[in-house]
Amino acid sequence: MKNIFQNKYFLIILTLIVGGIIGWMIKPSSSAPISDAHEHSIDDQGIWTCSMHPQIRQNEPGACPICGMDLIPLANDDENQADPMAVRMSPTAMALANVQTAMVGNTAPTKSIRLNGKVQVNESLLSKIPAHFHGRIEKLYVNFTGELIQKGQLLAEVYSPELVTAQQELQMAYQNKETDPQLYQSARKKLENWKISATEIEKIETKKQTLTLVKINAHHGGYVLKRNVSQGDHVQMGDILFEIAKLDKVWLLFDVYESDMQWVKKGNHINFTVASFPGETFTGKISFLDPVIDPKSRVVKARVEVNNSDLRLKPEMFASGVIEASLPGDETNVIVPKSAVMWTGKRSVVYVKDATEDAVSFRMREVTLGPSLGESYVIEQGLSEGEEIAVNGAFSIDAAAQLAGKPSMMSPEGGAGMSGHHHGSIPATNSPVSQPNSAKVMTDLKPLLAQYIMIKNTLVEDNLSEARAMAQAFIKEISNVDMSVFKGSDYQLWMSQSKALTTSADLMAQSQSIAEARNHFIHLSGSLLELTREFKPTNESVYVQFCPMADNNQGAIWLSLEQDIRNPYFGEAMLTCGNVEEVL
Prior knowledge:
By secondary structure, the protein is of the alpha+beta class. The protein folds into four domains: about 75-110 and about 330-425, conserved putative lor/sdh protein from methanococcus maripaludis s2 fold (Beta Barrel), CATH 2.40.420.20; about 110-120 and about 245-325, Beta Barrel (Elongation Factor Tu (Ef-tu), domain 3), CATH 2.40.30; about 125-245, CATH 2.40.50.100; about 440-584, no CATH class. About 30% of the residues lie in helices and about 30% in strands. The strands form seven sheets. Strands 4, 6, 21, 22, 23, 24 and 25 form a seven-stranded antiparallel sheet that branches. Helix 8 packs antiparallel against helix 9 (about 465-480). The protein is elongated and about 175 Å long.
């Protein structure tokens, strides 16, 4: 029995030894890869984010759960890169964010200046026929305004008791001219001043013929612009009886606003059109600029003299002109598209590209803006010829900079990077999108509409200082809106339009002329119309009104709570120009 137990223990020990040897022999190498695919890190797979909402981060491509835009890959910042203050972007991210760049060059700054004006009478060809003595219009030979008359043509005959007395005085002085020549000359001169011809004066002296009616003749030929008397009227010395002008040469008087004065100079060529001749362009040259600004309209008049032998251009016709102007001097300047500049109201920034063999990066650069050239800016300081900047997609670059804690438009010194929301905390993209709280939207947006109406009223009253103040208050109202009430596509609409509203209101608040403020009001009105249509911030009727002559005859809308037209684009000059296009 004892041998049996001993053999049993021996076999157990032997089995354990053999199993240990076999296990050691088949043990996997420590360098073998881990087969569990779920152990990969997010960094191995890449991070995807939204160019409009950089707080969104997830580890796979898809659509942004807020705005629905395609997510873009977020480049991993290399902490050892040459410029730690720059933001890196992969070629894929640049393509998806539609980032486009261009080289900065020096060119002569030119700008297309649009001017509005009117055809006016050439004042050098205008003559006025006054009454030289008291009297009564006995006969009138000009029957209507606009009549063409010739030089020397008889216009009227006037009876005057003073004339009879003056003739008698001349006849008596003529008899005694040898003894009192001074009295004679004085009596004769009196009739000459009354435009009595020398032939008639001689008849009065020698033949003692007394004139009962004095003839009024045209000093110049032309068209009768004004006829201020009718037959039988009594006139006083100095009264203007007729205004006569030649129209074979006319003036075009264009309004030049303060913001454009640095561009418009004497000698500039201008191309202009008039509504009566669509498709036809007239040309001229600025011959004179008023030395004084009109205190009410805040403009100076630029005069263009035009030959009008065919009389097609009529006084009071509206005209629209374009000047291709350049700044004084021969110096060239750095000019960039407006899309390249991000403007906060106080600072202007661009993103400068730095490309190496390994990566592309962008760094924010603050610049000083010069004059606006329409679709571009003159850069006074901050950029040099040959540098490459982002001309499209700057907002996406700025969002990536904010996300990485790099210097950005709103944080020039940089800051902590945004941790964002990772894939696990993001709701599914295809999940139902909640709708905004309508009552809360109305509560937040109604003050915005009310402040807009106040801006509109100040423009109607031609009050620039009040318009600027109301624009500042409008910006404050935008900041008071609770963005959490907007969801999904509504959030996207609010974000895009609120940015446009803020930009337009900022520009209005900085406007140097009423015309400049009205130009920014056009864009303000367009953005607010979109929000009003979508969110209906008031239970009252909102009237969409339209003026076809605003915006250089291209037409522009505005919103009003009253049906009556009170035009904010022309104010007192054309207060009732426009019509109701739509009622919301």
